[in-house]
Specification:
single chain, alpha/beta, Nucleotidyltransferase, domain 5, seven-stranded mixed β-sheet, 5 helices, 35% helix, globular, disordered N terminus
Length: 172
């Protein structure tokens, strides 16, 4: 059984109010899967990820947080992103951080039907219980902020937009 882990990274750009949620998935067997971005916006206006990695997915939400609806969309995206596929005979495990308000019993039961089991870590414990927090996501955040700071100082404190924000993630 393959082990998969997911983490959501919240980032803000000081003084500009751009919010972005990135649902990153690290696969112990097949490496990093494409990102699932949630931008703060009520309607789709532009393709903010058009310049970035193939198969990356973008969603809009008025506060840029994961919701029950977006989590279902993420699971569909996750299912089709697995190169080796998922089935009842090829089960996968998704370990989620503890923000469980978007994980419903219906979602869990539906996921089991296509070969995905989920474990949710207790809230506010990912820093201690999730090894990827220390080994992948914390270093990612550090590099992300360095890329952001370098770009902003090089371009005289330009006002970042959603396309630039996704680009910084891609660089980091």
């Amino acid at each position: 059984m393959a082990r998969r882990r997911s983490n959501v990274i919240y980032s803000t750009i000081p003084n500009f109010g751009e919010w972005l949620t990135i649902n990153c998935v690290i696969n112990a067997i097949e490496g990093v899967l494409p990102n699932f971005y949630i931008f703060k916006r009520e309607r789709l206006k532009d393709d903010y990820i058009k310049l970035y990695k193939l198969n990356t997915c973008m969603a809009m939400q008025k506060i840029a947080w994961m919701t029950i609806f977006l989590f279902k969309e993420f699971l569909f995206f996750f299912h089709k992103s697995i190169p080796s596929g998922m089935s009842l005979s090829n089960r996968n495990l998704l370990i989620l951080y503890g923000h469980g308000n978007h994980v419903t019993l219906e979602t869990i039961e539906h996921s089991k039907d296509f070969g995905l089991d989920m474990i949710t870590l207790p809230s506010h414990t990912s820093h201690a219980l999730q090894p990827l927090y220390v080994s992948c996501f914390k270093p990612f955040k550090t590099v992300f902020f360095k890329v952001r700071d370098a770009t902003m100082s090089k371009n005289n404190q330009m006002e970042p937009n959603k396309i630039i924000l996704a680009g910084w993630v891609d660089q980091a």
